[in-house]
């Protein structure tokens, strides 16, 4: 079943993290959607995928990486009728 969520969180070097860690995780879990740095150190994601893959992606965001810790993660469900055409895009 398809699942779509909106994530909002804080992280240092937001654009760099978006282009590396988050984009890599999206590819790993076959996530489609968009990611954008909203303000300095604040990132917003709209993601869709199979329910289990979305859950695994969210888990990866919580776990982070040795040098990357996301803070104040907020998650909301959103409409599943959006189409991102199977890719994860970074909006600047």
From TrEMBL:
Residues 21-86 form the Acylphosphatase-like domain. InterPro entries: Acylphosphatase-like_dom, Acylphosphatase-like_dom_sf. SUPFAM superfamilies: Acylphosphatase/BLUF domain-like (SSF54975). It comes from the Bacteria. It holds the Pfam family Acylphosphatase. This is Acylphosphatase-like domain-containing protein. It comes from Candidatus Chromulinivorax destructor.
